[in-house]
Amino acid sequence: MSGAVLVAVAAAVGNLLQGWDNATIAGAVLYIKKEFNLESNPSVEGLIVAMSLIGATLITTCSGGVADLLGRRPMLILSSFLYFVGSLVMLWSPNVYVLLLGRLLDGFGVGIVVTLVPIYISETAPPEIRGLLNTLPQFTGSGGMFLSYCMVFGMSLMPSPNWRLMLGVLFIPSLIFFFLTVFFLPESPRWLVSKGRMLEAKRVLQRLRGREDVSGEMALLVEGLGVGGETTIEEYIIGPADEVTDDHDIAVDKDQIKLYGAEEGLSWVARPVKGGSTVSVLSRHGSTMSKRQGSLIDPLVTLFGSVHEKMPETGSMRSALFPHFGSMFSVGGIQQRHEDWDEENLVGEGEDYPSDHGDDSDDELHSPLISRQTTSMEKDMPHTAHGTLSTFRHGSQVQGAQGEGASSMGIGGGWQVAWKWTEREDESGEKEGGFKRIYLHQEGFPGSRRGSIVSLPGGGATGDSEFVQASALVSQPALYSKDLLREHTIGPAMVHPSETAKGSIWHDLQDPGVKRALIVGVGLQILQQFSGINGVLYYTPQILEQAGVGILLSNLGISSSSASLLISALTTFVMLPAIAVAMRLMDLSGRRTLLLTTIPILIASLLVLVISNIVHMNSIVHAVLSTVSVVLYFCFFVMGFGPAPNILCSEIFPTRVRGICIAICALTFWICDIIVTYSLPVLLKSVGLAGVFGMYAIVCCISWVFVFIKVPETKGMPLEVITEFFSLGARQAEAAKHD
């Protein structure tokens, strides 16, 4: 996983620049207002500070949509360029107006980074460590603030502090970020697949995963292009086709189905389990309980929770579902090549990728990622312009049982992707059928379970045969077009991934699963901003001053301006170990668990601050209580409510609308940030410090209830499976309302 880790670290440098900028302007403005005589003009002073915020808000309105159109990497390159140019403009700035322009350009870079870095990391990270890697932006942002405060503090000790140098030195790390984005960061493989650039996506995945066989994940990325669709939960007992039965047995026994992997020649036999899967039973039970309790807990939360209750306890990338049968999923070949299947034949972005016709290793990438056995209705099926399914060469050979194939099994988090062919006769006796895509998740641990397969014809397998019980999310494949089926009635047809990714954005946003995800994402962003972090940051220097830190620093000969910068640096430094702990826990405990356990600490800390400002007490006791409360608030905020909303927002939206949906969430974040920042002085005058902290405590209580009722646990799950569950959960909720 080193490739994915290094890419995430490089992308998170953009957040380091964001933190650097936030801290630098806080120190530089002390000297800017002296040079431009802004003491009597606080509105201009406030505008200098807020211009970056305004730029971030403006750019966010379009950054997500543009990223869906042009790609994540070009937008990150643009952000680094804006950082670089903005820092040079601020370094030069002969007057306030040029300074405001530099701050605006800098804000554009900040807005792009805040919106796209979480998307980029989520789309490149393996599910098992996605939470850890997506906590990196929080860590690098706080690290950037600490380094910047230390730099500004050092400059403040000089006889004539130079604010232009304070702001302009940002060009050094921004130049580093520019080189990283241009020469090191690859494009998101999910975005590449959505544009049909399969060869490039495959190579990026190979680099990120550190192995050659990434076909299972390639198949997953294609399946993630769909939005919505009818999904059912089933349960199967699964075994290898060659050890259980043959095609003739399956044709006779209607209770058995054949599952096909992406690799040509690999297939499995499955028998549906009566009564449904444990996941489906628990989710139905959760829906019933929610209905009885007045629909307090979203069925979606119960549905996700039922999956994690059955999640195999494994931290490796190797799936536990088929531990001894090699890879089910490598990209399958199709005999007929289609020149227009992979758009990388064309000149693209100036990168020297070999032509599909000249690279034998890419033969399989001209076809859909599914291959199957010949069915009775497609033996004479002609090829279509869109590329029909071709013959699946039957075989049960399994590759790499102990070698490279084993390391590429599944799609992460204990999940597998497979397909089944369903066929039935209509009233006229004609046979019709179609593919169903299946996400499989093992229930319990694999083991030698021959006794449970006795009822399967041919189930008397001997040796080390293993059969597993798995829950299955069954839905229509992303590349299977009902419109094409109507056009080519002799059989199904597959569409190009780039065609699948096209469609009305507004229609996709109206999907029940997407709307449910937007409620979760926007709700978390609103509650995070109103939970009090800005107010506590504003109050921290005053608290530490009361604790005697200011007196101690003045005795050391440090001026009040330098002392405030050093106090801010110390405050930021305290956050770093807490964020490091959160990075470890994000994938172990989970996002939902961290939120539910850290928010009560925030409530308690705010209540102590309220009490300490209402009740008259000894100044030392007051300083100690306030200091401890602030430290606890900071530590637990950056462990939960700080990184979790951005992580969840980057996980819960489908690929086709992920950019625009996260832009909506980020825009909510910036608007709420503006409201909180500018309402704080007014609230302090009207209700006082105790009243402000009391309001923040109430918001934190509401936040805990919102997380408990609405926010599911997404740890360790592939992004495509998460969005499938959102779609299924939304439809369950709608069905429960109508019942």
TrEMBL record:
It is a multi-pass membrane protein. Keywords: Membrane, Transmembrane, Transmembrane helix, Transport. The chain crosses the membrane at residues 43-63, 75-94, 100-121, 133-157, 163-185, 560-582, 594-614, 620-639, 660-680, 686-709. It holds the Pfam family Sugar_tr. Residues 7-715 form the Major facilitator superfamily (MFS) profile domain. It is found in: Membrane. Belongs to the major facilitator superfamily. Sugar transporter (TC 2.A.1.1) family. This is Monosaccharide-sensing protein 2. It comes from Camelina sativa. The lineage of its organism: Eukaryota, Viridiplantae, Streptophyta, Embryophyta, Tracheophyta.
